[in-house]
Amino acid sequence: KVKEEKKVEPKLEIVSDVDSASYAMGVYMGKQSAMQLSSQNFNIDLFVKAFVDAVYEAPLKMSPDSAVAFLNAYEKKVREQEAEQRKKLQSDFLEENAKREGVHTTASGLQYMVVKMGEGEKPIASDKVRVHYEGFLLDGKKFDSSIDRGQPTEFTLNRVIKGWTEGLQLMPI
Q1: Over the stretch 45-83, which tens digit does the pLDDT of each residue have?
Q2: Which of 38, 40, 61, 37 is nearest to 49 (CA)?
Q3: Which residues are 111's β-sheet partners?
Q4: pLDDT of residue 36
Q5: Cα distance between residue 133 and residue 158, in whole Å
Q6: CB neighbours of 62 closer than 8 A, spacing ≥ 6?
Q7: Which of 66, 79, 82, 97 is the right S-S partner for 62, CB 3.0 to 4.6 Å?
Q8: Residues linked to residue 112 through DSSP beta bridges, in sequence order
Q9: Is 170 within 8 Å of 112 (Cβ atoms)?
């Protein structure tokens, strides 16, 4: 039940450090919440209502334990849906990419394209290699590039992701 002493109108002027800290906490929590709420299309009015009800100990439509259990289940469901969408995007990309001229697909499903064929030896999995590379997301956005940094990277071939281990063994120096 709402306690009568808690139904006091909040002080809306900032006149002390405690007031500043209170307002700052509201700004911080509001901004953090707004990012999460808007990214998942939550009903902000219901969020604010529940937040105020919880702060002022008003009757809640679900217990805090039920809320946590629901949010955990909801988050799991959303993650599973997002994973399925990513799998479909990846599958569609690989299917279309395989049709591009010059794209080779190995038995494992690795797709690669030779930009410039080398003439030296091919490395084996235990070799240390030095490479220039660029990494792109499915939407074409570059997320990493040793070329942009002007510095090739070095690593032992069997200590990186399987696609690199397999693919670089196909590339002569």
Answers
A1: 899 899 999 999 999 999 999 999 999 999 999 999 999
A2: 61
A3: 105
A4: 82
A5: 17
A6: 70
A7: 66
A8: 104
A9: yes
First to last CA, the chain: 75
Give per-residue pLDDT as tens, 104-117: 999 999 999 998 89
Q: pTM higher than 0.70 for the full model? A: no
Cα–Cα distance for residue pair 62/54, rounded to 1 Å: 10
Neighbours of 123 (CB within 10 A): 19
Whether residue 56 contacts residue 2, with contact meaning beta carbons closer than 8 Å, is answered with: yes
Model confidence over 144-173: pLDDT tens digits? 999 999 999 999 999 999 999 999 999 998
Q: Identify residue 52 by its one-letter amino acid code.
A: V
Q: Which two tokens stand for residue 87?
A: 């799998």
**H, E, C per residue of the chain:** CCCHHHCCCCCCCCCCHHHHHHHHHHHHHHHHHHHHHHHCCCCHHHHHHHHHHHHCCCCCCCCHHHHHHHHHHHHHHHHHHHHHHHHHHHHHHHHHHCCCCCEEECCCCCEEECCCCCCCCCCCCCCEEEECCEEECCCCCEEEEHHHHCCCEEEEHHHCCHHHHHHHCCCCC
What are 106's two structure tokens? 């190995």
Query: What are residue 29's DSSP bridge partners?
Result: none
pLDDT for res 38: 80
